[in-house]
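Sequence in, structure out.
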Amino acid sequence: LTLQLENWTHVQIMYDKLSKFNHDIRNHMISIAALAKKGDNTALDAYFTSIENDIHLDRQFMNTGNQILDAILNTKIAYCQKNGIPMEAKVMIPRDLPIIDYDLCGIACNLIDNAIEASGKEADSDVQVDIKMVANHLRISIRNKTSRPVLEENPGMQTTKAESNSHGLGLAIVKELVGKYNGSLSFQQQKDYFCAVAMLEMG
């Protein structure tokens, strides 16, 4: 529960910042236009920097149409960039999904966190997120680079003592939430990638 609340809190903070920025964008544009008209490039650069620092966004900001998912992905992309882990996200979903925001956060955040943690241990790290609708199911696919034969070492993806407070707990949360939507959680080893796929029934 603590892990879920921590992820949800991070997403809420990002969501609030995005909402505040969207609300204030007209005022920002007025200020930027005034500085540009004066030709004050130093002040203009400082203004842009202050905005970027305030909302902690970068050029890879996601605009999926789903605000909660945007907040989740932006938070994780920012973390990966800060820690030198390449992360790519592809999302094609309807703006409104029949899933509780807290549940979406629990599933996506835990799977992505596990992928980031595992890939961060690799010399050639990489995390790939692919979220889309397949018929009436929401498909959440998270891939991470790995040099280990993960499924050979742990075919049932059981929690080990070393993982009991992080990776294993996250998977337990995901399995519970996936079951809530009559879904499935599967794992695959694809060459140098480990892949977790959650399928959720959306009606």
